[in-house]
Write a structure and sequence with these properties.
Order of helices and strands: EEHEHHEEH
Number of strands: 5
Helix content: 25-40%
Distance between the termini: 11 Å
Structural class: alpha+beta
Strand content: 15-25%
Shape: globular
Largest sheet: 3 strands, antiparallel
Number of helices: 4
Length: 94
């Protein structure tokens, strides 16, 4: 993830992300391995006053996973049951 050029690559392939998907991935990458709640992600990636649907984080994570999947490997964003989501720590070091 290159914040200056707003480019994400996975296995050397550019991944086109929406601004929200980019911000979501960037926030997850800032805390690899940490389980982040949906409410924290809403507050940090959207904003405190966001009044949209309650599943907006889930929808964006699902889209981000589809875009980051490489054939034969799982997407690096995991669901932490009852908590939220996390970026697998080993993925952040690559």
């Amino acid at each position: 993830l290159d914040p200056a050029s707003h480019v994400v690559t996975n296995e050397g392939i550019a991944v086109p992300l929406t601004p929200k998907e980019f911000a979501l991935l960037q926030h997850l990458m800032m805390r690899p391995g940490d389980a982040l709640s949906r409410s924290e992600l809403l507050e940090r990636v959207w904003d405190v006053n966001y009044e949209g649907g309650s599943n907006v984080v889930d929808v964006h994570v699902a889209s981000l996973r589809r875009k980051l999947e490489v054939v034969g490997t799982a997407a690096p964003v995991e669901t932490v049951r009852g908590v939220g989501y996390r970026l697998r720590a080993e993925e952040a070091v690559r």
